[in-house]
C-alpha cells in the first residue's frame, strides 16, 4: 500500500513538472521578438537567424535531479517494504 502511494506521488510530481516546464517554454518562445530591423517580410531569412540566436535556454539542472531522487526514494521504499514481508 505504501509503495503504491509513493509511486502515485512520483507520477503526480512528474506530471506537474512536465506541465510546468511546457508552459514555461511555450510562454518564453511566444515572447521572443526579433529586433526592429528584422521585422519586415523581405528579411525572412534574416528574421529566422535572429530568432535562432535569441532562443530560450532549455537546460534545467534541478528538475530532473529532483525527479530522479523521488523515483529512487520510491523504489527504495518498495524494496524495503518487500523485504519486510519476507
Protein architecture, described:
- There is one protein chain.
- With 86 residues, this protein is mainly alpha-helical.
- The chain has one domain.
- It is built from three helices and no strands.
- Helix 1 (2-30) packs antiparallel against helix 3.
Overview in brief:
The chain is mostly helical and about 90 residues long. About 70% of the residues lie in helices and about 0% in strands.
| Helical amount | over 70%
Instruction: Tell me the strand percentage band.
Output: under 5%
Q: What is the element string, with H for helices and E for strands? A: HHH
Radius of gyration: 22 Å
The general outline is elongated
* Cα-to-Cα separation, first versus last residue: 16 Å
Q: Mean of residue pLDDT?
A: 75
Q: How many distinct beta strands?
A: 0
What count of helical segments does DSSP give? 3
Largest sheet: none
Unreliable runs:
none
**Into how many domains do the coordinates divide?**
1
| Derived structural class | mainly alpha
Write the layout of secondary structure elements.
Layout: H1 2-30, H2 44-53, H3 63-85
Helix pairs in contact: 1-3
Considering the chains and any ligands shown, give keywords for the structure.
86 residues; mainly alpha; 72% helix
